[in-house]
Write a structure and sequence with these properties.
The complex is a heterodimer. Helices cover 0% and strands 53% of the residues of chain A. Chain A is an all-beta fold. In chain A, the strands form two sheets. In chain A, strands 2, 4, 5, 6, 9, 10 and 11 form a seven-stranded mixed beta sheet that branches. Chain A has a four-stranded antiparallel beta sheet with strand order 1-3-8-7, with no helix packed on it. The radius of gyration of chain A is 13 Å and the shape is globular. The N and C termini of chain A lie far apart (37 Å). Chain B is globular, with a radius of gyration of 13 Å. The chains are: A mainly beta, B mainly beta. The interface between A and B is medium-sized, with 26 and 24 residues.
Amino acid sequence: KAGVTQTPRYLIKTRGQQVTLSCSPISGHRSVSWYQQTPGQGLQFLFEYFSETQRNKGNFPGRFSGRQFSNSRSEMNVSTLELGDSALYLCASGRGPNTGELFFGEGSRLTVL
Amino acid sequence: QQQVKQSPQSLIVQKGGISIINCAYENTAFDYFPWYQQFPGKGPALLIAIRPDVSEKKEGRFTISFNKSAKQFSLHIMDSQPGDSATYFCAASEGRGNMLTFGGGTRLMVKP
């Protein structure tokens, strides 16, 4: 059974650009959550999607957005990139919205120059 | 506001020893407490989880102890092995939801 697939794995952007990250959850999983991991702030919740609807959103500015498609794949977008957006962005897949068991991908490492 | 505080930040244990990581939370609405293990270059992987209606849960060498009145929970790794060397995160959520609040992480090194 394939795990959570995140693309791209690594990317470098410059300030002011935008970036789109993609996540394919485990087959059959309908919930996708996104987390940001940095050395300073640790793991922080960005947002959660289930059945194409955003269920929860973390305390991040509006530059961070996401969406989920009918096949449960998800994308997150960060516009007007700032140096502080450099981080590992992790996608987590779950069977449903309240299963409590999340399966994380290996992440997309974003570097903003 | 850091709602889940984790300690220590780093831990060195001899092979065969017991590793103990502690977490404390503030939000009394939290009712699901998972622990994740993360190796370098990998995403976190769920190790074990507990709900507040039990005080202890054991899976293999990993045990969670939970103290609801103190709002604290801990992970014990018995017979620690070098392969256990990783970063461990405690977390908490409401209603077993997928919006997890993570602790700051503990980098564990098990010396052979």
